[in-house]
Amino acid sequence: MRLSVITSNPGKAREYAELFEGTGIEAVHAPNPYDEVQSDRLEEVVRKGMGELRGRGLSDFIIDDSGLFIDSLKGFPGVWSAYAQKTIGNAGILRLMEGAGGRSARFRCCIGCSIGGEDLIVSGECEGVILESERGAGGFGFDPVFSSDGERSFSEIPQGEKNRVSHRAVAMAALMAELRSRSLI
Ligand code: IMP
Question: What are the structural domains, with CATH classification, of the chain?
């Protein structure tokens, strides 16, 4: 079975190709854009995105809306993560952290999967901290400033390790369990 991974982010597409390895599902990157509505909930963004894509007659796809939620910034950048990444970037996030109360943060990922005529929405979280500086060359987005073990950034750990602990990995595990329980795979 094939699922299109509809995203304009090649980093996410790479992760899904690896996360689906050995599952019997082939994840194929489909960079066609769709309108991401602004909402204060990732699930809402995904639900509306799925509706738009289904309205265009598409099926057998996944979409992913993710964000970085920093406790001492009251959850910022959260659902505005893409905008924050494009505008202030990781350097701007680090500047905002100067004098902030603490460094705890979490990544959240919401996956929408349209498969065999059914629509599923699952989520995953990964707890961690914002590092003092950008570290490492791998990954994408906020990976250089986020650490789940408090030492190494997501850009410094091997991709296989990120794919075992990340918000996306947790959401993927929930998706696979849901697909199995509905006998869709
Ligand atoms: P979106 O889900 O594509 O809207 O992503 C929101 C922002 O969070 C983008 O700037 C992404 O690059 C970033 N982002 C999403 N997932 C990750 C991740 O796993 N690591 C680092 N940054 C991420």
Answer: 2-181 (3.90.950.10)
